[in-house]
Design a protein that fits this description.
homodimer, alpha/beta, Rossmann fold, 6-stranded mixed beta sheet, two-stranded antiparallel sheet, 11 helices
Amino acid sequence: MKCKRCRKADAAVDLPSHNSAFCPGCFFLFFRRQVVEGIRTLSLLSPEDRVLVCVSGGKDSLVLWDVLMELGYRTEGLHIDLGIEGYSDRSREKVLAYAGARGKEPIVVDLRAEGIPIPEAAKRARKEECSVCGTVKRYFFNRIAARRGFTVVATGHNLDDESARLLGNLLHWDQDHLSRQHPLLPEMAEGLVRKVKPLWRVSELETAAYGFLSGIDYVTEECPMSLDATSLVYKEALSLIEEKMPGTRRHFYQGFLHQNRDVPGNSGAPGRRECGNHDEKNTGGEASPPRKCISCDAPTYTETCSYCRLKERVTKARERL
Amino acid sequence: MKCKRCRKADAAVDLPSHNSAFCPGCFFLFFRRQVVEGIRTLSLLSPEDRVLVCVSGGKDSLVLWDVLMELGYRTEGLHIDLGIEGYSDRSREKVLAYAGARGKEPIVVDLRAEGIPIPEAAKRARKEECSVCGTVKRYFFNRIAARRGFTVVATGHNLDDESARLLGNLLHWDQDHLSRQHPLLPEMAEGLVRKVKPLWRVSELETAAYGFLSGIDYVTEECPMSLDATSLVYKEALSLIEEKMPGTRRHFYQGFLHQNRDVPGNSGAPGRRECGNHDEKNTGGEASPPRKCISCDAPTYTETCSYCRLKERVTKARERL
């Protein structure tokens, strides 16, 4: 099959959801245009922004960093080493290798050095790993951005991530999460920086193809903590539908964004496990502005911020041993 | 494993979605209670009703008729012979056998005799079989009910049907269908009789178990016209989720009913194929009352009702041959 754009080279990437197929060159063009369009339509980024790109070492975040650099944005990478044996070491290596080859030195937060590696923290705090991970990541995203003068934090969530999350929220009629789900979360207060997901228009297959064709070396394994996360089940269900009806996933998520997002609902969601990586909330829509954490000065709606409370719980549990 | 209710007999039906397992006797009790509860909470039926039960010959509709008779409702069966070679003959036989054994004689509408068998009608009218089937069935449900003094039409749609339909409507943000989706569609005008789905709380697995344990002999094959209907894909996707997270399907649909059903949305649904059996709309929410079809007197919002228009199209196409 020939590329449907240039009609010259052989097609390398088949995209049934776009009823198209591209050669590598045309695919890069297509991919970048999708990202540009995603940024433009929702005003995610401006040329003046200083962008903190959160890079886990997986394909999505490295591809995001790659495209944003290509598009000329001022970016730096932030890698949070979660302290998961093996997996975290391999992830960190990939990030450092990618950045090094581009003359960049990523900011690295080492959760072992911070005394709060995810597996141990979850165990001590008796919480789900994904929930703990979400709390810790949000904290450092905001802290590093605020302290180092970044205007926005960008994460690599793609269309598959966002549509799976949307499906989960709808299955549980989780009004609270539905009202907050968006590729743009504006800055809510000083220290609660704007969060954006510039890859919201591109699928996992598309980021994988971009990563492969660009020769980006990334960690292919899933995070071992999230293997039974519900988000993977929703992804699988949507993949099944997408296979039979290409384009459904895209229409589903884009259709949602076209709504006013005020889907009515009783917030009847039981405490199911969600990968905290997909829960980038800023505030809960509270009316009053945040105050400062009495322990670390971070913006918070409670006396002590959730990170400091978690850390105290972990520390105390550790001391009891 | 012992029955979780009586704790004496062996469990015969395992229901993870209810975190339970029942012996046959307790399962019947459970099943009937679910139906009673479904009827009561939404005021679907009253003891005064004369209920026209639409029986296809499949498990759901025969189980519905069975339970409604057990519960003491005044029912008659209506079977529409769709004129699908083989399948329709086998379906009709099952209905007649079931009814005969209970001293009942179902009303039968033979679409071949009416000159509008589904396969030929769809071909001549150049429409999807499921869409044609939906139009024809709705027409006869209303006509037979109105002419024979039934106060309500009952169909065998179960929880799997309704949740799959809901998922499809949400994936396409089909506001029009979302606003009409409910186990109760009230009488909209004379001749547009009330429609109810008393099995909306029970799953396909549960109706199958009821059918099997009661010894009801039903057609097990799917309608050959609907084999590539999108509804089957949505069912499969929900089954995948249900298997990993039992109870999700039930919470999803019940959560929807608890909403005010005014899910905002652009009606951007493309003309996808849906089994018309699942599209029991009455009116479209038009403001003015219906008038009478100039051809057949049925209530309609256009000069000629959709059934008569379809029939004319089929007749003309046939004459052209």
